[in-house]
Specification:
By secondary structure, this protein is mainly α. It is built from 13 helices and 2 strands; from the N terminus they run ααααααααααββααα. The protein starts with 20 loop residues before the first helix and ends with a helix. Bound molecules: fe (ii) ion (FE2) (2 copies).
Length: about 325
């Protein structure tokens, strides 16, 4: 998963001439493709933008385990169960790398967790939708992890070193996630009529939420420009959405499934697909915490946090004891 570009910073992008010497040097390093590291000077806005983006990304990985975790005990075979278990564990790992990357910017993991559990922090809108059938596990891997790859591959070149480096490993694992999802879809589509209908139903329900993962259209996404100047973002939301559609339509054709968009048509002139508009009202509503499973997702995270309290306390007590032994 990744962070959606949903809030405007409202700050206009400054030119080099308008910057003080420190900020100018910082921007010149970014323009030259150098990485910014945790101990380097950085503008407060850069730090804040990254904390918001990386923590939203981390929360999305963690909450993103829930729709699929729902199916681990009901996977149709031992192999499918082992694969799904490994995939969901990967997502937990992604969350942990990303919380660590955010911590290098001067926030603590407890603070970030508190923001999530209180409902103040956002996570990707896609995880507020329910996983109703086994085919949804196929659709999530194929479409949701597919969209995540589209977003995260350019993030490997992010100007902030710890974030970009975390993305390298994350992207390798996302490719496996996408393949396992597509493999589930392929198996269902080569199966009985009922199985194929299940796959079509999953595509019908996940297609539009997957397109919304890229965030609102560029003209409604004001802070893209500053994030691009800072080398945090490399492509606009619409560019990535277009790439995703162009990549995914032939994959749906191969499955023999129909993408639920009457406006979808190949445009020979632009050598890309034209496609319909997402329901942005629904998107903003989900982002506000009103998605079909928003309440359930946060409740699950709150319960997990409360259930783990004894373990965190044990770890802290052990660390303190070890330090005392070391000091003595
Ligand atoms: Fe992930
Ligand atoms: Fe994934």
């Amino acid at each position: 998963m990744y962070a959606q570009n949903i809030k405007s910073t409202g700050a206009p992008v400054k030119s080099l001439d308008e910057m003080g010497p420190r900020e100018r040097r910082f921007q010149e390093r970014i323009n030259a493709g150098e990485k910014i590291e945790p101990k380097d000077w950085m503008p407060e806005g850069y730090r804040k933008t990254l904390i918001r983006q990386i923590s939203q990304h981390a929360h999305s990985e963690i909450v993103g385990q829930l729709p699929e975790g729902n199916w681990i005990t009901r996977a149709p075979s031992l192999d499918r169960k082992a694969i799904l278990l490994a995939k969901v564990q990967d997502e937990a790992g992604h969350g942990l790398y990303l919380y660590c990357a955010a911590e290098t910017l001067g926030v603590t993991r407890d603070e970030l967790t508190e923001e999530l559990l209180s409902g103040r922090a956002k996570y990707s809108s896609i995880f507020a939708y329910p996983s109703l059938s086994w085919a949804d596990i196929g659709a999530i891997g194929w479409l949701v992890d597919g969209a995540a790859i589209m977003n995260q591959v350019p993030l490997q070149r992010c100007s902030y070193g710890p974030y970009g480096r975390a993305m390298v490993r994350v992207c390798k694992e996302e490719s496996f996630h996408q393949r396992q999802g597509y493999d589930i879809m392929l198996t269902l589509c080569r199966g009985s009529e009922e199985q194929k209908a299940m796959a079509q139903d999953a595509l019908d329900r996940w297609w539009w939420p997957a397109l919304m993962m890229f965030g609102p259209p560029d003209d409604a996404s004001v802070h893209s420009a500053q994030s691009m100047a800072w080398g945090i973002k490399q492509n606009t939301n619409d560019e990535l959405r277009q790439k995703f559609v162009d990549q995914t339509v032939p994959q749906a054709d191969l499955l023999g499934l129909k993408i639920p968009d009457e406006a979808l048509v190949w445009n020979e002139e632009k050598k890309a697909y034209d496609f319909g508009e997402c329901n942005w009202e629904e998107f903003f509503d989900v982002i506000k915490g009103n998605g079909p499973c928003s309440h359930e997702r946060l409740e699950a995270r709150r319960k997990a946090w409360a259930d783990g309290a004894w373990f965190r306390e044990g770890l802290a007590a052990h660390a303190e004891k070890a330090q005392q032994t070391f000091a003595a």
